[in-house]
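Session log. Operator J.P. requested a structure for one protein chain; no other inputs attached. Running the standard single-chain path with token output.
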Amino acid sequence: MEDRSITLTTKPGASLRISIHTPEQSPADSNSISNPLSDTLVVFLNGLALPRAAWSGAINHLISLRRDSRQPLPAALLSYDRYGQGESDPDPTDLDTPYGHGPEASVADLHQLLTQLCPEILPNSKSLEEARLVLVCNSIGCALARLYAAAHPGRVAGYLFLDSMMANTDFVSLFPADPDGDDDDADLVRHARAAFGEHFHPTVPNPEHLDRRNLAALLPHADRPALPAGPGGRVPRLVVLGHDWDEFAEQCEKGPLSVAKSVINEYVNPAWGAYNEGLTRLVPADRSGEVKIAKGCGHFIQKDDPAFVAKEISDLLNGL
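Structure written below.
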């Protein structure tokens, strides 16, 4: 693994911190004819809360799994911290406001990063136009992957969505504005509505300065628009993972939110489950499938069970 900084030509004066894994292949696998993944770059897209370091466990498990089973490895695996996140510098174009840059800017940064890196890290100095991308994403990273694919069709061959954020909600409206009665149950719902609003409403700033206020307008539906065709005009593969309802509710109750499990299970989990089901319809049924529940995992599946994530990535690569 190589950890280093890179400066995008489009944003001089600031750097992104990246981690590149270019697994050492066997002599046979290094041959582009015998290794069907010699043109494949796996890119990991963070959510807001966890930086690129959170993918290390899954990446290490993936490399070990593929080697132990004598399966070819992709040409490279890339994780990175977006501007304002983890070890990367703040976005140099942000103004002195709580919001800064929008999702479209993050998508443009990703494209520029890949444009600069691909000739360097892919065999035979392949350009981005010659590469096949697999996007492994968590939370808002899934929304950014959808926006990237729409802006750059023909690039992405496969997606693994790890508990995508519900991009089309303000989170507050998941709960009734005026729950019936003044009993304890109604008070629990009022607390949940306030807590989710304080932490997750699109108007709440974040350290990354990624402005989420227009995200619902950019992605108003879970099931459309369809993900565009990937390299060679082929329909991409998509795997959608969802959190374990009980574990997520437990974490919400015991964590900083302090929202009762009963409220999460009544209002949040059903809505999130329906959203994930919608995501599976972004590709034809034979290229996706039902939502897979990550048993024992909350929202951050890559942290809670990196080995499970590695297995899902490996299966996705085999499906290509």
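Operator note: The radius of gyration is 20 Å.
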